Amino acid sequence: MLNKNFIPFPILTTKRLTLRQLLESDVEEILSLRSDSEINKYLDRQPAKTLDDALNFIRKTNENIKNSPLKYWAITLTENEKLIGTICLFDFSDELKKCEIGYELLAAYQGHGIMCEATKRIIEYAFLTLGLKSIDAFTHKGNQSSTKLLQKFNFQKTGIIDEANPNLIVLRLSNLSPDGQRH
After folding, report:
1. Which of 5, 20, 73, 162 is spaced 20 to 30 Å from 66 by Cα?
2. CB neighbour list of residue 13: distance below 8 Å, 6 or more residues apart
3. What does the angle CA 102 – CA 22 – CA 94 come to, to the nearest 5 degrees?
């Protein structure tokens, strides 16, 4: 069994970022993320329309965290508690020791290496703390920014076809073995 359920929720840090659990006070930023047509154009989800939609999403996500291995972090700049994006690990497989990664960032913060920094920290957490062997990412073939980010971390295209959405490509990152070699 993978070591996934941590109480309290794991707060992760980098040089510039704090990754923490969602708070109800993040409601306006979650509404901005989940209603932005540019951020959502490659995502298959209903956009949030109201603060109530965003608040319900926060509450549902935090409830799911309590009852499943889902990890969903708010990305904040360390000197400011304001949410600027999110990053998550979900769809865990104990048998295969893998999960999926997802992320989103407010447009004003894109292009500054923030998601790269957050992704690096989450990959370390997934492999070193959770003991995972691989991480999958499903990204739209038109989403070049996401594909480039994943390839920076050596995610490789798998050739797996998502029959429900053939516009998605599946990339996978395998953990390093103790001798530093990828398997």
Report:
1. 162
2. 19, 78, 121
3. 50
Q: Quick one: pLDDT at residue 165?
A: 87
Task: Give one word for 181, left, alpha or beta, with left for phi > 0 and alpha for psi -120 to 50.
Answer: beta
- The span from the CA of 147 to the CA of 141, in Å, is 8
Question: What is the pTM for the complete model shown?
Answer: 0.91
20 phi, psi to nearest 5 deg: -135, 170
pLDDT of residue 149: 96
Q: Residue type for 20, please?
A: R
Q: What pLDDT shows up at residue 6?
A: 56
Sheet with strand 134-140: strands edge to edge = 12-13, 17-21, 71-77, 83-93, 98-105, 134-140, 168-174, 156-161
Q: Please report which helix (H) or strand (E) contains residue 26, including its range.
A: none
User: Average per-residue pLDDT in the chain?
Assistant: 90
Q: What average pLDDT values come out for the chain (183 residues) when binned by 10 residues? A: 62 97 97 93 88 96 92 96 97 94 96 97 96 95 94 94 88 71 45
Residue 146 CA to residue 169 CA, distance in Å, equals: 11
